[in-house]
């Protein structure tokens, strides 16, 4: 009975190996794709600075995941309300990205960035400037354009003392 279980496992492993791709996908990092990815990221920051949730959400996939600092992740339909609340609470100014790295692999792109922005609470309060870093994972759409599928960022500020 034991040898039958081992044989079953071996057959399953052989089948899984036969179904695996013959080789890893080859990176396709064309200048045009990398430029489009950087341009999309810049438009995202411009939408945040404009305080325009519709403009911002138009750059996201329908199943986008946002992972803001010190908050739970938001996915799909939960992203737009978060964006609306953020833009209703603060204004963003002096925003810029440093495009640290862009890697395009077929229809997926990884954009690693650093940022600086000034946040001003709409309810009053002192504006503050943040620097930070993040990762966008973008997907090419059927029409050839890129959209943000995952947006993860955090600030360089030290965590509060415990």
Mean pLDDT: 87
Low-confidence stretches: 6-18
Provide a count of the helices.
4
Strand order of the largest sheet: 2-1-6-5-4-3
Strand content: 35-45%
Distance between the termini: 56 Å
Could you state the order of secondary-structure elements as H and E? Answer: HHHEEHEEEE
Secondary-structure-derived class? alpha+beta
Q: How does the overall form come out from the CA principal axes?
A: globular
> How can the largest sheet be summarized?
6 strands, mixed
How many strand units? 6
Query: What share of residues is helical?
Result: 25-40%
Global Rg: 21 Å
SSE topology:
Blueprint lengths: L1 H18 L11 H20 L2 H5 L2 E8 L6 E2 L3 H11 E16 L2 E14 L6 E13 L5 E10 L7
Parallel strand pairs: 1-6
Antiparallel strand pairs: 1-2, 3-4, 4-5, 5-6
Provide an overview of this structure.
The model is unreliable at 6-18 (pLDDT under 50). The protein has 162 residues and is an alpha+beta fold. Strand 4 and strand 5 (128-140) form a beta hairpin. It has a 6-stranded mixed β-sheet with strand order 2-1-6-5-4-3, with helices on one face. It has helices at residues 2-19, 31-50, 53-57, 79-89, and strands at 60-67, 74-75, 90-105, 108-121, 128-140, 146-155.
Give a brief outline of the structure:
This protein has 162 residues and is of the alpha+beta class. Helices cover 33% and strands 39% of the residues.
What attributes does this structure have?
39% strand, globular, 33% helix, alpha+beta, 6 strands, 162 residues, 4 helices
